[in-house]
Amino acid sequence: MSKKGTGGEESVVVSAQTRKAKRGPPRKRNPCPGIRCVAGRIYDPKNGKTCHQCRQKTTDFMVACRQPRKKGLCPIHFCHKCLSNRYGEDAKDKAKEAGWTCPKCRGICNCSLCRKKKGETPTGILAHAAKALGHSSVHDLLIKRSEMVAAAQTLSSFPKKIKKV
């Protein structure tokens, strides 16, 4: 169906059904996308190592924990980005250390799973907020914040009026 416009141009009227037919069915999520490269990180479901913090299976540089357990060493790995942003540690330096233990083995892990297990609320994505507030890492922010909360609780426990003697 075409109609002549006032300026001599031809305009085409397209029905809603025709538009849907041209678009096709909605894309479905691929449960196994295979090896892919996104923003310089290589995601490999077979050969990649999983970061304990972000749970991404990549071929990026990761640091393995060397804490002994009952059945061998601790199996946890941390990627360089999470170790830097969440704990303020340099992955290359920690990889050189012979006895490096992961934040989970040290009891300072701030991933959502470990925080839930401790009965604490998950932090979410705090790396940008921590840097904006002048902290070196999310761990530093959490430590400073807990110290501030403890100080505020101590101050609030004092009597409001001081009795004169």
UniProtKB/TrEMBL annotation:
Pfam families xref list: zf-4CXXC_R1 (PF10497)
Organism: Triticum urartu (Red wild einkorn)
Biased composition (Basic residues): 19-29
Domain Zinc-finger: 43-142
Location of region: Disordered: 1-29
Lineage: Eukaryota, Viridiplantae, Streptophyta, Embryophyta, Tracheophyta
Main subcellular localisation: cytoplasm
Keywords in alphabetical order: Cytoplasm, Isopeptide bond, Nucleus, Phosphoprotein, Transcription, Transcription regulation, Ubl conjugation
GO terms under cellular component: cytoplasm; nucleus
Compartments, as annotated in UniProt: Cytoplasm; Nucleus
BP term (GO), one: regulation of DNA-templated transcription
Protein name: Zinc-finger domain-containing protein
